[in-house]
Amino acid sequence: MIVEPERLSVLKPGPPGRGDFVLYWMQHAQRARENPALEYAASEAARLRLPLAVLFVLAPYPSATAVHYRFLLGGLAETARALEARGARFILRRGESPKVAAELSRRAALAVCDAGWTRPELAWRREFAERSACPVIRVDGDAVVPVEAASDKLEWSAFTLRRKIEGAVPAYAARIPPVVELRRDARGLDLDGGAELLRTEGGPLRPEYPGDRVPEQTALPPPGEEAARTRFDTFLNTGLDRYDADRNDPTLDGTSGMSPYLHFGQVSPVLLARKVLERGGAGAASFIEQLTVRRELSLNLVRFLPDAYDRWEGLPDWARRTLRDAAGDKRDYLYSRSDFEAARTHDPYWNAAQNQLVRSGSIHNYMRMYWGKKILEWSADPREAYGTALYLNDRYALDGRDPNGYAGVAWCFGRHDRPWAGRAVFGTVRYMNAAGLRRKFDADVYAKAWA
User: Which of 405, 382, 410 is CA-nearest to residue 314?
Assistant: First the structure.
């Protein structure tokens, strides 16, 4: 068994036809190792005695900037070299993903695609299946427990999902997709590889504007599968044992830093889970909770709330109702989106979080909660606040436009949470303040680091 059956979905049925190759449309899982979709496509190519062609389409994506495309292309260059060395043909094209993939499917006997659960990704795969000239199989390699096997409905909280998946995590984590030997070398296929695009900025890009801080994004991690594995091995050796104690202190380097690599599919979540479970130790259970329950709760959100996971209407009824009721409450401070973007507030802790987001492409997990809560508190309207938080996260977070980001912002407004004691502006949505930061860690040290 190359891939667990639960990871497979038939998007367009039918037997393989006559073709020059098996096509793997790689979009979400941008890696050459521990990639179930790649290995399934390779196994079908070997079975059919055909070469394997791997396509990536450089497409416009909402809110993506030059920073995101540089990270993506840096990882793809490494992936392309690994695939070509293995005997596959890597093809990079620019355009509308489903149309480009469907055009190539005319020469394919069978097409395989990986899974992506955001609205654009779902629409791309649906359109590709409709346009494809050959059968299409989707393989879910984005979760430890496959998304549609974990639950068949929108989960209310981490508690409800945890009960369904925690027993299955060890079995899925232990599974290593076998590396399939390709029987036919595809490097000689008469297909333009598009290698010149790996040396560009990518695009089309969202234009810059006065006040845009993308040029400040200089403290970013290196891209690619090898960089992800190296960083994670360091974390295993020096950070895992203290993960539970250190992960909520933004003044410490207590997290794994894997979120951008998971977002771009440059590392396998199954690999991370397996390595942590094999090593064990004090922080293992806490890390597995974040990687599986918390991360996969966000995948569940976008899968089962596809039209509203990033919209005001997608918040729970109780949260929207209480925030609407409190919308007229007096606010001590009011800021515009441009004020938030420039980190021009009275609060040095909030400003530090925004500066960390801009310069490093991420906010420490604990500070992101505070960051989102204060955008709600200091905006004229809760709906406006929600849009501001999503916009800033998607534009400046290296892992923006991700289920984890959408769920994290929505949590600040009541998603995956419960009603609390009522107060001004927040209603019964959970409140956070600066005094709470100072009780948990040295918030002044954090503020100075990102001043």
Answer: 410
How far is Cα 355 from Cα 173, in angstroms, rounded to an integer?
36
Q: What's this model's pTM, rounded to 2 decimal places?
A: 0.96
Question: For residues 112 and 26, what is the distance between their CA atoms, to the nearest angstrom?
Answer: 8
In the predicted structure, residue 203 carries a pLDDT above the cut 80: no
Structure confidence by residue, pLDDT tens digits, 248-262: 999 999 999 999 999
| CA-angle at 367, arms to 366 and 369, nearest 5° | 75
**pLDDT higher than threshold 90 for residue 63:** no
Residues contacting 418, CB < 8 A, separation 6+ = 157
Measure CA 72 to chain center.
Answer: 12
Say what the pLDDT of residue 416 is: 97
pLDDT tens readout for residues 301-351: 999 999 999 999 999 999 999 999 999 999 999 999 999 999 999 999 999
Q: Are 22 and 108 in contact (CB under 8 A)?
A: yes
Query: Would you tell me which CATH number, out of the four given (3.40.50.620, 3.30.460.80, 3.40.50.720, 3.30.530.20), belongs to the domain 1-141?
Result: 3.40.50.620
Q: Which CATH class is domain 143-177+224-306?
A: mainly alpha
85-113 core/surface letters (b: 16 or more CB in 10 A; e: else): ebbbbbbbbeeebbebbbebbebbbbbbb
Whether residue 187 is predicted with pLDDT greater than 90 in this model: the reply is no
Q: What is the pLDDT of residue 62?
A: 79
The rounded distance, in Å, linking the Cα atoms of 189 and 93 is: 15
For the four alpha carbons of 377, 382, 385 and 386, in that order, the dihedral sign comes to positive
Task: For residue 53, give the 3-state DSSP assignment.
Answer: strand
Query: pLDDT band at residue 206, thresholds of 50, 70 and 90?
Result: low
Q: What is the dihedral of CA 101, 103, 105, 111, to 10 degrees?
A: 10
Q: How many residues does the chain have?
A: 451
Nearest of 320, 338, 330 to residue 429 by alpha carbon: 320
Burial of 13 (0-12, 13-18, 19+ CB in 10 A): exposed
